[in-house]
Amino acid sequence: MRVGVLTGGGDCPGLNAVIRAVVLKGVNQHGWDVVGFRNGWQGPLTGDVRTLSTDDVEPILTRGGTILGSSRTNPYAVDDGPARIASVLAEQRIDALIAIGGEDTLGVAHRLGKEGIDVVGVPKTIDNDLGATDYTFGFDTAVHIATEAIDRLHTTAESHHRALVVEVMGRHAGWIALHSGMAGGASAILVPERQFSVDQVVTWVERRFHREYAPIIVVAEGALPEGGAEVLQNGEKDAFGHVRLGGVGSWLADEIATRTGKESRAVVLGHTQRGGTPTAYDRVLATRFGLQAVDAVADGEFDVMVALRGVGVERIGLADAVDVLKTVPEERLAEAEVFFG
Ligand code: F6P
Description:
This protein has helices spanning 15-30, 42-46, 54-57, 81-91, 103-114, 139-160, 175-183, 198-210, 248-260, 280-298, 318-321, 330-337; strands spanning 2-7, 33-37, 49-51, 96-101, 119-123, 163-168, 188-190, 216-220, 232-237, 243-245, 264-268, 304-309, 312-317. The chain is elongated, with a radius of gyration of 21 Å. The chain contains 12 helices and 13 strands. By secondary structure, the chain is α/β, with parallel strands linked by helices. It has 2 domains: 2-137 and 278-321, Rossmann fold (3-Layer(aba) Sandwich), CATH 3.40.50; 140-275, Rossmann fold. Strand 7, helix 8 and strand 8 (216-220) form a beta-alpha-beta unit. Helix 1 (15-30) crosses helix 10 (280-298), helix 6 packs across helix 7 and helix 8 crosses helix 9. Strands 3-2-1-4-5-12-13 form a 7-stranded mixed beta sheet, sandwiched between helices. Strands 7-8-6-11 form a 4-stranded parallel beta sheet, sandwiched between helices. The chain has a two-stranded antiparallel sheet with strand order 9-10. The chain is 40% helix and 19% strand. 6-O-phosphono-beta-D-fructofuranose (F6P) binds next to loops.
């Protein structure tokens, strides 16, 4: 049997741990040939492929990023994209494909599955916003990185009596903001799920200064002020139609400075949240997902995705996998709010 693997969408700590698990179990236990397609769906579109030996993957467990490269290529936005993929897979004698990605990559996997290509999906996103799985790997690492940054920002904010606004990733869901903000003792956590009142933020900031502490506000990149619009870096869209968010932190820092008269600064954590070595939790989750994806292929069960449910890894239909966005529920925000101001 010959199995292909690819990684699509934004990179994420733990991708290499999945690839390693797929290759080691596929080769050592099943005697498969495993090949990697480079740069997401670009690889199977163009035939950009490399063999993956056990030697290639032994050292990559702790390495961030993906040895296969990634892209946001959408084969359905390319002329004859799906047909080109089918012909490359036939040329390469690929029996099954393991696609590791978020909603876009897995959405393509599902559509290709309906056209007869045998695909198993592995979910990944630092945003942790896929409804079908309790957790995605990469999220824990991103939260650790953001929390460490917030810990450091507290001391410099205190020294300068400044408000610091920390902008973290989270396009439609504020999980990174919520967890890092709670772990880091933020004075406010602003998420895309609930529009925020600038007046309320100013009240929290002033209350915090009044107690002679410097406020740290954690804001997800997709958070919106009441009646406002998402802050975009520019008008560009990617192949899946997503705009580039970014800038709400600096907008809010200016508002806070104007309204309170206190110095305010914005810190954008950006891609540091996606880089570097995965945490132990993410390495284990990614490895378990890789092992279970191999089992699905071995069982001949396709158009499925592996998912964490409680402490077990299960298989669910790819159609359900990408359907539901997992957003932060009100009750989690209410818990966090106890500590605001
Ligand atoms: O992986 C998802 C994500 O982290 C979003 O939160 C963010 O908007 C996006 O990636 C940015 O990715 P890029 O800069 O690679 O397009």
